[in-house]
Amino acid sequence: MASASEAAFAYHEPSIKTVLSYTSFLLTLNIANTCLDKLLYCGFFGQLFIGVLWGTLGAQWIDQETERVIQQIGYLGLILLIYEGGLSTSIQSLKANILLSTAVAITGVCVPMGFSFILEELACVGHPSSVLRCWCSLERN
């Protein structure tokens, strides 16, 4: 049985740096999305760029725990987006274009998998562990 201190989730007030960095992150995401959507119709790329700038690869203003939470919420959003796409698919349209739909599905799944297998063999970049093995073998030579 867990003690009272382990069972309760204590509230700790975040630092002003944390509040400001998260607030600036969310505001900049929305501003970049709005501006790029109006100018170039590609607000998503602005959001990706801002995420890289604020995250581990950039200024590291967002800690890794928060990045993991954002990633998990993104996965949930992706699942819901795919589910919504399935709900809005017309069965009559799918039946009328079954060959084209099958070709698109096979291309979307098999071609990236095939490219990853080819790249793994050619350049040792198929998986992070493959990259590490290649780097270690280069260091020894």
Envelope shape: elongated
Which structural class do the helices and strands define? mainly alpha
Pick out the low-confidence regions.
Answer: none
Number of helices: 7
- How far apart are the termini? 55 Å
- Gyration radius (Cα, Å) is 22 Å
Mean pLDDT: 83
Give the total of beta strands.
0
Topology order in helix (H) and strand (E) letters = HHHHHHH
Q: Main beta sheet, described? A: none
Strand content: under 5%
Provide the helix percentage.
over 70%
Task: Please tag this protein with its features.
single chain, 141 residues, mainly alpha, 7 helices, 77% helix, elongated
Summary?
It holds the Pfam family Na_H_Exchanger. With 141 residues, the chain is mostly helical.
Structural notes for this entry:
This protein is mostly helical and 141 residues long. It is built from seven helices and no strands. The protein has helices at residues 4-7, 16-39, 43-54, 64-87, 91-96, 98-123, 128-140. The chain is elongated. The N and C termini lie far apart (55 Å). Pfam families: Na_H_Exchanger.
Write the layout of secondary structure elements.
Elements: H1 4-7, H2 16-39, H3 43-54, H4 64-87, H5 91-96, H6 98-123, H7 128-140
